[in-house]
Amino acid sequence: MGDFNVISTRAPRVDAAAKATGKAKYADDLSMPGMLYGAILQAPIAHGKVLNIDTSRALRLPGVKAVVTAKEAGLVKYGVSPARYDETLYAYEKVRYVGDEIAAVAAVDLATALEAVELIKVDYEELPAVFDMFESMKEGAPQLHDEFPGNITAEVHQEFGDTEAAMAGCDLVVDHTLLSKRQDAAFIEPHACLAYFDLDGKLTLHTSTQVPHYVMRTVAMVLRIPVGNVRVIKPYVGGGFGPKAEATPLEMSACLLARETGKPVKMNYSREQVFLHSRARHQFYAEMSLGVKKDGTMVALKNKALLDGGAYTSFGIATVYYSGSLLGGPYKLQAMKYDGARIYTNKPACGAQRGHGGVIHRAAFEQLLDKTAQQLGIDPMEMRLKNIMATGDVTINQLDMSSLGMKECLESVRDGADWYKKKGSLPKGKGIGSACGFFVSGAGYPIYRSDTYHATVMVKLSEDGGVVNVLTGSAEIGQGSDTMVAMIAAEAIGVPLDAVRVVSGDTDLTVDLGAYSSRQTLMTGHAVKEAAEHARAQVAEVMAEMMQCDPASITFKDGKVLFDGGPGKFEEIRKTYIKEHRGWTDPPGGDCLTFREAARMAYLARGTIVGTGKYKPPKLGGAYKGAAVGTSPAYGCSAQVVEVSVDMETGEVTVEAMTDAHDCGRAINRTQVEGQMQGSLSMGLGECLFEEVKFDSRGRIVNANLGEYKIATALDMPKVKSIIVESNEPNGPFGAKEVGEGAIMPTIPAILNAIYDATGVRITELPVTPERLYLAIKSKQEEK
Amino acid sequence: MKRIIQLTVNGEQAEVAVTPNRTLLQVLREDLGLTGAKHGCGLGDCGACTVILDGKPVNSCLVLAVQANGSEVLTIEGLAENGKLHPLQQAFVEKGAIQCGFCSPGMILSAKALLDENPKPTEHEIRMAISGNLCRCTGYQKIVEAVQAAADSKALQGGDS
What we know:
The complex is a heterodimer of chains A (784) and B (161). By secondary structure, chain A is α+β, with helices and mostly antiparallel strands. Chain A has 21 helices and 26 strands. A 7-stranded mixed β-sheet of chain A has the order 3-5-1-12-9-10-11, with helices on both faces. Chain A is globular and about 90 Å long. Chain B has 161 residues and is of the alpha+beta class. Helix content of chain B is 34%, strand content 16%. In chain B, helix 2 (87-95) crosses helix 5.
């Protein structure tokens, strides 16, 4: 596939040892002298007018240093998409969900801050609330936002081709619905942050975030701080998965309190508050019809989506677009109609979570495909293979599959799981199911309208020692981007991995949009490669001058310098270096000049050697409304086969085996790609079988903890067979594209299709708890 | 009214004044500066706060500091000796068992407690031992492989440490 020195290996992560020894500092591990602790007052009711806020008793509590409300915070509206800035930091007229922020306190310790929060007296006029999206859409439902009548955050209507005509020409049209529930990302590290102002008005915010850049902009905008005075630094982060891809009231409160008190302010969310904040997976209702020819050729798709988005928009506009656009592939269609609506309800706001809007609709579609295959008497694996797109195809909604290893993925899992041997031969209660999916490698457009580069990188060579310092605003949140950055830089320059040092996640370094939409390998990777090559070129030029040769004849390989493929006569250069290091006992040696020496010479000749790189995708997508959402320079794709056993007496599902193939273009680090694949599967498994955020009749979350919101444990995950497919993406650095979100797409439907195979029951509601499946099995038996 | 407790942490004597409701996790993180043990939930659900207390793995968020008076505590910071990684830490690094790393200190200590008691665990025994340590990043596969590798390497070394 390619001859590489650093990438495509199983190098250990550059940050693994720090994490294994407890040295890695996460936001809550940070402290500063004189630090105060903040706490937030959150609404106890789901919907109400705020009549009066009395902070006087809180202010009088000894140890309290500041109490802030909308009065101090101001009323600048914010959100994620500028088209839907529908929230203020603190409620000033209305609270819209249990958990809506009203005020914040800074005190000498957390206990005092929490006590002070209890002393803030708020008078509410409680309003009727609506918790169900179907109810919320009805005439007469309580209205959350005056500007959005009917509680419709956003509505999408798209059609490609003539769907009615196409359906009319089909031999068979099959329908399916799927209803999911609101879910949580359940990263193990709750949000935490530490904010402080310097005496010259410069703010530094350390925060557990995926997107330092967007946080910087939002904080500057909302708190009206000159944007050049805001620095956001991401420490180690314990997972994000989407909900940490936007600025939080926690962060803004800490900054505001730091400004009010002149002291550093530390704040974190309790696990319960993580659930209350949410910005996690919407509830989706999918309703679709697939029209096919009797030979299994897919013709037309009608797709409807309803999303319950909670009280504010967050990412919701993009989400409701993705539920449609991500069904344009990976199968060929002649016509597609999509109608989607995202609805407000009096619950915590939902945002982007791994797979962003595509997961449930992909699940529904893959079930629909199986259902259709069954009615046609065709093996569902065969039907998938028959209809998948290939590299170079463009979807009906104008998404360009510049590389697509869908066939290789499907065939790998088909063979790797022994599909033909098992399908149709398993005993009752055991089943095998398959599914496909794909996802963007970075959104084609930034969240705010701008011509900004999506990633910029600086490579600074140390003046001595040959260290390649890579400075990037990109966000390592556990997915491995720092290691990807180091490996690409090492490969592009021609040094070993341990010669590279990555400094990242700080808005003072460079612009990078951050870790979301699975973008950093492709986008940041491109910028890293360019910056590294730029630095390398400068060193090569200096070498060429000193050795009187053509720079093109110089290669750097594994930290050595080769002239026309050989060592060349470099003795004078080495002499110069050694003369400059009189007294050192470890002079450079060996048959070849080292990069250390070459970089030193380059510095002596030109001063500090800095390479810069930048990346912005080309203009992508069609001209229709909403075309931007779904566009990407490349698409990763995935296929899975899952085997389950179902206890027919209890409905309990055990996932026995998972075979997973993902096309990541080129695996920069093979171990890390597998890790992301396996993690995606465990998240998908949890979301399919266990995960649901539950509310009571007053809009309060009843299972806001990890004991009752159940994610997969080591006992729930089977061994996964992970197969990496590499289609060598032309738009990706060294051919690389995404893995972080595409890999979750097939998981839920593969399990659901396996459950059907085992039980004859086609699930239409998630999660598939034992109770739900048992009742469905019983009902099916009674049908007979 | 604070009480003085004395405990041995990573082989060192520590003396701390604590209120009765202070947890061992808070003492480790805030009084002793050992931030390796993490606060993930505060309810004993996630295991990110796991430390080894008198030889047994515990959720330190559920242990009152006063309960640890006179006890021996091993945290993640106490595993590596003289800058050399413990075989478990080495295996976690090599096998890719660490992604975001937030569950890793607790996970590694649960694994250590297992291997101390059962040097040659089966895969199922490993999964049982870490079933109280939630991980959202890895899907557990490479963690299990790392524990197996550490067990194999320790077996080769005659099961020391």
